[in-house]
Design brief:
alpha/beta, disordered C terminus, globular
């Protein structure tokens, strides 16, 4: 039975109609209606529902094969619209319907019936059945037939399918929602779960899974098939079965191994059967591999069986395909044919098929199931855990054992002296607690550990009391279980009250209640307060002792399970009290009896003690007890913290706790007399210091008395106890919570401690603050420094004049800003969008005509407006969102010569086009015909506006099967027409009137060319509180001051400074200044882990009195994290400093996350709707990708909604912390931000899904921006803000300038790219001679405006700009000739790149997916080949004297020997072949050569990968700076950042080229930075950067691309573009190079490179010409058809006109004007209408003409005819007679399709009515001809038009011939390449092992390579002699 789309669609429509009727009438379905409902099959495989069907003309966009479905689809949408309550309901139905197209494939009922019957035959008759993906309920129907009393619960997410199902099974539970919404109370509830479950990497939201600790549950929450499997196991009870049909990937994929392991830990595999791929062909029209997995829930006994191991493990077949071990022999695969094919994702897979159809498949399945169930199903286990039937559960109440322990009461738990507060609570909550302990003791196994309550006596075990327990209640003492634990079996559906119970708890456990339980502590809070040593809880058995048996003593406590923290607390408190009571009682008894010093027995039999000693001990304990701290009259000093050392009223030393509580507590310390004096004097110093600082900070006046006291106390301390930082004092001072700050009172210079500045002068305020200004400029500087604004009143007090005189003097430096109602400096006012500001000032002036200051401001703004860009200089992209749609509509109407309307939906970022009529321009000139449909000009213009490519396919035969593949030639022709439209737009614009051009250019300038960036001058800033002396500098760099001033002015921005430019101080000073001026309240600095300590240290050194929170690694443990977050929230910090990783741990505001993700989801849904509306123009890949992203975002949103609903009031997130500015160091680490785009196949865009790290940053920045209502809110600092491509700029702007982007009409990446980027499309022939298209964003336009937009918020400085004393870079390209092996391999690579034959490289043939990435593979091979042939095959290839390792070793040794005296060091970088201790790698090879050939000690050559810890890494860097390590190898990632080992570096070596310019910059930055003393003193302040490039390899090409990219990036950052366009190149790490350039570069001939580029252009043009000629031929054929139709129509017009004239001449009328109907029938005399009509009906019944037209009479000279037409229906011939009228033109006219009416009069009038149709028919032919004639000129023009690029092709071919002659003339036999081996006779080039010829080689290389140091420090020519 073939899959009939039309029939299935009709069945679906009727089923929906019945369902809507049943809903409206609220009645059950009849038997006939049930049959219609059961025919529902969903829309899986019916992709036509995605095509547009809103208007009748939409059918023109449909394929020929699908066009017959158009009426049905229209009917379907009409039905959904009429059945929906409103538009929202309709949209939900349509969305659900469209989502099901790629996923709704239903299982053949015969297969399910076989499964159910097999289970019943084995004794499985479920009482409760779960179907989590029900579809039409085929599983539940099958099982209910076998077990009629079965209670079913079915989930179906699809709205329409769920509606159908609910009517099919009205008495059963049908939930129209996702399976993830099932309540936890259903865990362990069902006997069997059976379904055909969904498959895909779609995220599912289930808190129990996403928050689980184990990998399996977390992975399952991200893959829907794994989730269904594991959740299904959770939902069945012990012994129950899970029988799921799912994709083969579950068992085959290695990534699913953790899930399979979890399944085998909890289940036994019963039956695993693989279905053939064509199982679903008849029912769903698709082929997909699937497996039947039947598992029985039964935990493994520890060791897994061999069958379980096979279930877990996979193996690789010889063809590389992964197959599960259970299918080793394919005997459990139903099939009769097998071959290698592909899976759903195009990856190689075994493809099984069965030719017998569903019946034969079901028959084989029956046999396999019978065998498996008899062998592996444990029926006794299933029955032993069976549940009661519903009937039983109603008549019998379930009882369970009372699980509360019955113990003897412990009097010690109820002390008489209990605090009244707690006593009240005890009495209220536990009025009968003592009686509670008299109740029965629990005997449940595995609940409580045998704890040591020494005073509790064990009683005999009483009988177990039975009482009903509510099902579903799940409680546990175990708060750290890794995953869900199912509850015990239940007898009826779980109660709703238990819905919120966590699934991790077991019903077998009951907690011990304590007072802590009364206050609602959550599990997380309990974990946080649990002592570290408490360990994890375990379930152990409660001992049941005899009545006289006592609990064991405490000495064996360690042998038992650890106690829960509350139990431990109670136990330890009670034991201490008991011990004290026993000791006191023993002492009293002994004294009474003897009067002597008694002996006190101790329980642990330790030595005896005297009573006086015990008394002393007790007195000491009493003395050391914490007591309330007596607060001073003025309150607790501000600097006192938790843990501060203090002196109490008794002059005792102790520390404070609970300072934020009701009353601080004083904890005495036991100190010696000397320690007491030291601590007391320290406390005086500390308190005096803080008193002095705060007093001067508040009064802004010096306090000499306090300063003298501080000096005296400090001098006294140092005289008696030494310096504060002396080791003997550190323990005491660090004991104090604020001790580290006091240690900063000493500063060390030359190893000698000196007093900090506060001992000599105030540091809390600027002592140099001027009180008088000589001029207005000084007054302005003072105002900006103190207030951050232009404070005229303050300035006048300094200057002594009036405000008016100040303004007059400051003319041109300050301007009135009406928006803020005051004056601003020019730096701030004349900046940003000056055009917008000018408009706002103009509006103010209009309302205040006499305001002169505002007029001056307006003039200044107008002068600052950038020079307008003339129209002729502008670059336009077709589809830029800022251009009005009316302009696009006018262009489209001009192009197509008909009215076209263009609309743009900003929310969806989508253009729509609507045309009133079609013509040849639309269908032919700008249309492309594919194999089965027309892509007309309207459709292609939509693609042109979006800059996308249509998905045009064709059918080819592959493996005897028809498959759809891209039609490369049609795609190329479509792209050429799209390109013609896009290019033609600019030409059309230039043909418009001058007025039009002026208006458009003005609109552009106002939108983009409107930014003015001032030269920020921060020299006036004094930075109060900044301790320059402590930093060891005289002043900040001017660049640092300017950057801080920019941040203060703008409220954030980008600090784009090169490495070593001092970004750390910019952050520190920026944060403090913005805090001081009130611009921010609580700034946060986040940095790399390697740098954060240095930043924190610098901050505290620069501002010693700043309040800084810098939590260490140990402070961010899960237990301490909450307290740290509260610290951030509850304190007014000057700065919070975190690492990137710590920042990622901060919970982001759920509300912000929800809003951002909802916007992302809206965008995805809008893109999805756009894709669906394009119908067949969209590939399954694009559609499914969007649907997957939609599902994942929906799951994340559900998670956030759950987080908001369940959030505790005290939960602290980023929004609540009050952070209002972020300083993000190394911000490029967050560049991988999520974005939506339709350009999913374009190279170089990166991962649009982004990273969680970047998304967290976006959440945080948006939180701040939402609070301030402005852009920025953060400062990004990095030397590589743009690391690879200008597309990264969009993400920077998305972070920092969302409002400005919105003003420019940019809501998406696609909108940004439409303005600033241009795609390139390269075409090449594949191996099968197919055209392959490659796209990438290569060109960027409007670059000056883009640069201005960037620079407005950016301070960009190079080291040269700043004047940093750092070495210059001396780049040296070291060319290396290829070795013979490389020469040979280069030829192989060229063949491989051309043919795809991987065997020539010695590897397995390419798979289909690998062949698509062939050039990436080829590029990777070329990189490895260039570095060392042994990276390709270490066994096949050997060492060579001319390989890169030999050259590098020689050069490195040369530098080593040259700079031996200075211990010069070198960095060696390579990202390929990094160090691995157990395998060959270039690092080790070069090191070996340096050791064995050049005698360099091994200890001086190290690999950064050897530093496994941060400590060892720092030690390695230290040794490098000291010259102990002379050569350090590493990759960009590990050695390129966070390594400050430049002190002695003289050279950097690049063995390979990285992918990004920023990587190269980071590498060089290790040596080219400040502090390189060796380069400055001994190498002319230069560092050699040696680039090793093998000739005929990609090395030099890659380095050239990197340099070009970096050049463009630097020009953009400098806002100094020499061009309006940038070309970034065409090579990246994800796609490699294009074929032609690759081959040319490998050939080593630059002329061949040029030739390859010419060949590529010629190939593409010739292909385009062929496509053009084919299109032209098609148009020529259509023109001939039209001309033929015109002629035919003309003939009809002539003949019909003749008949019309004859009829008009002959027609007769009665006196009243009625026309007569004189019908004459042959052989029939009567002429009255009734008789004639009856006779005609007799003829209609009896005539049989056998298909011929026979005359039966006449009317007005026209012949009357009858014709018998025979059709077959239900096996019988059905004859119908039709009647016609024939005139002189031999044309047959009819009325009512030739059928007669039953009424005689009407039947007789049939022929007269037929003649009346002649005028309308005549007009129809005339109108048709008129329409056809309109298209003829256009078609003739297309047919006669030449190909526009013919001249270009001829010129290229001529250039090619010249190039070929030039190449031929230059070709010579390949000779020995010049290199290190030059001069060696060819006969001696045979390679000999290094070890045997070491002396000769050393001598030889020393002659060939030498490093010359500069003479007298002047580097005339530094480098190599070769």
């Amino acid at each position: 039975m073939a899959f009939n789309k039309k029939a299935r669609l009709r069945d679906n429509i009727e089923a929906i109609r019945i369902a809507f009727d049943l809903d409206g009438e609220r009645r059950p379905a009849s038997r006939e209606e049930r049959k219609i409902l059961e025919a529902w099959c969903g829309f899986g495989g019916i992709k036509a529902v995605l095509s547009p069907a809103d208007n009748p003309e939409d059918v023109q966009q449909w394929t020929k094969t699908d066009s017959e479905l158009f009426p049905l689809i229209t009917e379907l949408y009409g039905l959904l619209r009429s059945g929906s309550e409103n538009t929202t309901g309709y949209n939900r139905y349509v969305s659900s319907l469209k989502n099901s197209v790629l996923s709704a494939f239903y299982t053949p009922p015969k297969v399910v019936d076989t499964l159910a019957a097999a289970l019943k035959g084995s004794g499985i008759e479920p009482v409760r059945l779960l179907d989590p993906s029900a579809g039409t309920g085929v599983f539940s129907r099958a099982f209910k037939q076998m077990a009629p009393g079965c209670e079913t619960t079915q989930f179906e997410k699809d709205l329409l399918t769920g509606k159908i199902l609910s009517h099919l099974v009205p008495d059963e539970t049908v939930r129209i929602e996702g399976f993830e919404n099932i309540e936890p109370r259903y865990n362990g509830y069902f006997d069997v779960a059976a379904s055909n479950i969904p498959f895909g990497d779609v995220r599912v939201f289930d808190p129990a899974y996403s928050n689980a600790k184990d990998d399996a549950h977390r992975q399952a929450s991200g893959t829907i098939h794994n989730y269904f499997l594991m959740k299904g196991v959770d939902c069945v009870r012990e012994g129950g079965l899970v029988a799921f049909i799912t994709s083969q990937g579950v068992l085959n994929s290695e990534s699913n191994r953790p899930v399979r392991e979890w399944l085998m830990e909890h289940c036994q595999p019963v039956s695993i059967i693989r279905f053939p791929n064509n199982l679903f062909s008849d029912y769903a029209g698709t082929e997909a591999g699937s497996d039947l997995i039947i598992l029985q829930k039964k935990a493994s006994g520890g060791v897994l069986s061999g069958r379980q191991q096979d279930f877990i493990n996979c193996r690789k077949l010889s063809n590389g395909i992964s197959v599960n071990n259970l299918f080793q022999s394919f005997d459990r695969v139903i099939h009769d044919n097998v071959k290698v094919g592909t899976d759903l994702y195009g990856k190689p897979a075994m493809e099984f098929t069965h030719s017998g159809g569903v019946s034969a498949i079901a028959s084989e399945l029956r046999g396999m199931l019978r065998d498996d169930l008899s062998r592996y199903l444990d029926i006794p286990y299933y029955r032993s855990h069976a549940q009661e039937t519903p009937a039983q559960s109603q008549s019998q109440a379930l009882v369970t054992k009372d699980i509360r322990p019955q113990l003897q009461p412990d009097v010690s738990r109820f002390p008489d002296d209990l605090d009244p507060f707690w006593q009240d609570i005890e009495d209220h909550w536990f009025p009968d607690e003592k009686e509670f302990w008299n109740k029965e003791e629990q005997t449940v196994e595995g609940v409580l550990p045998p704890k040591d309550y020494s005073s509790i006596k064990k009683e005999p075990t009483p009988e177990i009391q039975e009482k009903p327990v509510q099902p579903g209640i799940q409680v546990s003492l175990n708060f750290d279980l890794p995953g869900p634990v199912p509850p015990e079996k239940q007898s009826k559906e779980p109660a709703n009250e238990a819905k919120t119970t966590e699934t991790a708890y077991s019903i077998n456990n009951q907690p011990l209640l304590s007072l802590y339980d009364l206050f609602g502590l959550s599990a997380e809070e309990r974990r946080q307060v649990k002592p570290k040593n408490s360990g994890s809880r375990r379930r152990v058995e409660i001992h049941q002792p005899n009545a006289k048996q006592e609990w064991k003593s405490s000495k064996k406590e360690d042998d038992r399970a650890p106690l829960e923290w509350r139990e431990r607390l109670m136990l330890e408190t009670r034991k201490k009290r008991e011990e004290a009571e026993r000791l006191a009682k023993a002492g009293n008894d002994a004294e009474t009896k003897t009067g002597l010093k008694p002996v006190y027995p101790i329980a642990d039999t330790r030595k005896e003690e005297q009573p006086e000693k015990l008394k002393e001990k007790m007195e000491r304990e009493e003395r050391m007890k914490p007591v309330p701290f007596v607060l001073p009259e003025q309150g607790l000093p501000k600097h006192y913290k938790e843990g501060s050392l203090v002196t109490n009223n008794d002059n005792r030393i102790g520390y404070l706790s609970d300072i934020n509580g009701f009353r601080p507590m004083f904890h005495p310390l036991e100190l010696s007399a000397q320690q007491q004096k030291r601590a007391s004097l320290y406390i005086e110093i500390r308190d005096t210091y803080h008193h002095l600082y705060l007093n001067e900070a508040e009064t802004l006046q010096e306090n000499p008395a306090l300063r003298r006291m501080l000096n005296r106390l400090y001098d006294d301390f140092t005289e008696r106890f030494g310096k504060l930082n002396d080791p003997k004092n550190l323990d005491l001072i660090k004991m104090d919570a604020g001790g580290r700050e006091i240690l900063s009172l000493e500063r060390y210079r030359g190893g000698k401690a000196v007093k900090a500045d506060i001992f000599g002068r105030p540091v809390a305020f600027n002592t140099r603050e001027i009180t008088h200004a000589d001029n207005a400029r000084d007054a302005l500087a003072a105002s900006l420094n103190k207030h951050g604004t232009v404070n005229l009143e303050y300035m006048a007090s300094l200057r002594g004049g009036t405000e008016e005189s100040l303004l007059e003097e400051l003319k041109g430096r300050v301007y009135f800003n009406p928006l803020v109602g005051g004056y601003e400096v020019a730096d701030k006012f004349i900046a940003g969008n000056v055009i917008s500001k000018a408009d706002e000032v103009q509006t103010f002036i209009d309302n205040h005509p006499g305001h002169e200051a505002a007029k001056e401001s307006l003039t200044a703004l107008q002068e600052a407006i950038p020079k307008p860009i003339d129209f002729d200089e502008l670059d336009f992209n077709f589809g830029e969102r800022w251009i009005p749609t009316g302009i696009y509509a006018a262009y489209a109407s001009y192009l197509f010569e008909t009215d076209v309307k263009v609309t743009y939906a900003a929310s969806r970022d989508e253009f729509s086009l609507h045309n009133r009529s079609h013509n040849a321009n639309i269908t032919e000139k700008y249309g492309v015909r594919s194999e089965n449909r027309l892509f007309d000009g309207i459709a292609l213009m939509r693609h042109a506006l979006h800059d996308t490519t249509p998905n045009i396919t064709k059918t080819v035969i592959k493996d005897d099967k028809e498959v759809k593949v891209p039609d490369g030639q049609a795609i190329q022709l479509a792209n050429s027409k799209i390109e013609e439209m896009r290019n033609g737009f600019s030409d059309w614009l230039r043909e418009q009137s001058p007025e039009f051009k002026d208006r458009l250019s003005m609109l552009y300038n106002r939108t983009f060319n409107c930014f003015a960036r001032p030269e920020y001058d921060g020299s006036h800033q004094a930075f109060p509180g900044l301790d320059l002396k402590a930093l060891g500098i005289d002043d900040l760099y001017k660049s640092q001051k300017d950057a801080v001033w920019m941040l203060k002015t703008n409220g954030g921005g980008i600090c784009d400074h090169e490495v070593g430019a001092g970004k750390t101080l910019v952050m520190c000073c920026g944060a403090m200044e913005m805090k001081r001026l009130g611009l921010v309240n609580k700034p946060m600095i986040i940095a790399l882990k390697a740098n954060v300590h240095e930043i924190a240290q610098t901050f505290c050194t620069a501002y010693p009195n700043a309040k800084v929170l810098y939590p260490g690694k140990e402070d961010f443990t899960p237990a301490k994290r909450a307290s740290i977050f509260n610290e951030m929230k509850n304190n007014n910090w000057d700065a919070v400093i975190l690492t990137h990783e710590q920042f990622g741990m901060i919970p982001q505001s759920p509300e912000i996350q929800r809003d951002i993700l909802q916007r992302e989801l809206d965008s995805v849904e809008e893109n999805l709707e756009v894709l669906r509306n394009q119908g067949r123009e969209v590939s399954n890949y694009m559609l499914k990708g969007c649907q997957k992203r939609q599902a994942n975002l929906e799951a994340r949103l559900k998670g956030i909604a759950h987080q908001i609903e369940t959030r505790k009031d005290d939960a602290v997130d980023f929004r609540l912390m009050g952070i209002d500015h972020l300083f993000v160091d190394e911000s490029h680490k967050f560049k991988n931000l999520t974005f939506n785009t339709r350009h999913d196949r374009v190279a170089g865009l990166g991962n649009s899904d982004g990273s969680q790290r970047a998304l967290n940053m976006l959440f945080a920045v948006r939180t701040i921006q939402d609070r301030t209502g402005k852009d920025l809110g953060a400062t990004f600092l990095s030397g590589t803000t743009i690391s690879n491509s200008l597309t990264e700029l969009y993400l920077l702007f998305k972070y920092l300038r969302p409002k400005e982007l919105e003003r420019q009409g940019i809501n998406t990446f696609d909108a940004w790219a439409a303005i600033y980027a241009r795609k390139t499309k390269d075409y090449e022939f594949s191996v099968t001679n197919q055209i392959v298209q490659k796209e990438r964003f290569r060109y960027f336009i409007k670059v000056p405006e883009l640069a201005a937009f960037y620079s407005e918020i950016t301070d960009f400085r190079t080291a040269k700009d700043i004047g940093i004393d750092r070495p210059e870079k001396n780049e040296i390209l070291h060319n290396i000739p290829p070795t013979p092996d490389q020469q040979e391999f280069i030829q192989k690579l060229m063949v491989f790149a051309k043919t795809g034959d991987a065997t020539i490289l010695g590897r397995e043939p390419l798979t289909e997916s690998e062949d698509k990435a062939r050039m990436l593979i080829a590029t990777d091979y070329a990189r490895k080949m260039s570095l060392d042939m042994r990276l390709i095959d270490p066994q096949k290839y050997d060492d060579h004297i001319d390989n890169k390792a030999s050259h590098a070793a020689a050069v490195i040794a040369g530098y080593y020997n040259t700079y031996t005296a200075q211990k010069g060091t070198q960095f060696v970088f390579s990202d390929l072949g990094t160090y691995k201790p157990d395998s060959w790698n270039p690092y080790s090879e070069i090191k070996n050569k340096l050791i064995t050939h050049y005698g360099i000690p091994a200890s001086e050559i190290r690999f950064i990968q050897e530093a496994g810890t941060e400590k060892s890494r720092k030690a390695m860097i230290k040794d490098m700076n000291e010259g102990k390590i002379r050569v350090l190898f590493g990759s960009t990632e590990m050695l390129g950042t966070g390594v400050n080992a430049q002190k002695r570096c003289v050279a950097v070596h690049h063995l390979d080229a990285p992918w990004r310019p920023s990587d190269l910059e980071q590498r060089d930055g290790r040596a080219i930075r400040r502090g390189n003393e060796a380069a400055r003193l001994h190498a002319g302040n230069k560092v050699d950067v040696v680039i090793y490039a093998v000739e005929k390899s990609l090395d030099a090409y890659k380095f050239g691309l990197l340099h070009n990219k970096q050049l463009f990036i630097n020009q953009l950052k400098n806002n100094n573009m020499g061009s309006r366009t940038i070309d970034e190149g065409s090579m990246d790490e994800k796609s490699g190079m294009n074929f032609s350039e690759y081959v040319a570069i490998l050939s080593g001939n630059t002329e061949l490179l040029e030739k390859s580029r010419l060949e590529k252009k010629i190939t593409a043009l010739e292909s385009e010409r062929r496509a053009f000629m084919q299109g032209k031929s098609s148009t020529r054929f259509k023109l001939a058809e039209i001309m033929k139709s015109v002629e035919t129509n003309r003939g009809f017009i002539v003949r019909i006109s003749r008949d019309v004239e004859a009829f008009n001449a002959r027609v007769q009328a009665s006196p009243d004007g009625t026309r007569l109907n004189p019908v004459r029938l042959d052989g029939f005399a009567a002429t009255d209408p009734v008789s004639v009509g009856k006779r005609l009906n007799e003829i209609a019944d009896k005539a049989r003409t056998h298909g011929l037209s026979e005359p039966i009479g006449s009317l007005y000279g026209f012949t009357l005819l009858v014709k018998s037409e025979t059709t077959v229906k239900d096996g019988f011939d059905l004859v119908q007679n039709r009647f016609f009228v024939k005139g002189e033109g031999e044309i047959l006219y009819n009325y009512n399709h030739g059928h007669l009416a039953a009424d005689p009069k009407l039947a007789a009038a049939n022929f007269l009515n037929a003649l009346d149709t002649m005028p309308a028919l005549l007009e129809k032919y005339k109108a048709n001809n008129e329409k056809l004639m309109k298209d003829i000129p256009t078609l003739k023009a297309v047919v006669e038009s030449p190909w526009k690029k013919e001249d270009e092709l001829k010129a290229l071919k001529a250039e090619m011939k010249i190039m070929e002659r030039k190449i031929e003339a230059s070709l010579k036999p390949i000779e020995q390449s010049i290199g290190i081996m030059a001069g060696v006779p060819k006969g001696e080039t045979k390679f000999v092992p290094m070890q045997d010829n070491q002396k000769n080689i050393n001598a030889f290389l020393e002659e060939r390579v030498s490093i010359l140091p500069p003479s007298n420090g002047v580097p005339e020519k530094k480098g190599f002699k070769i």
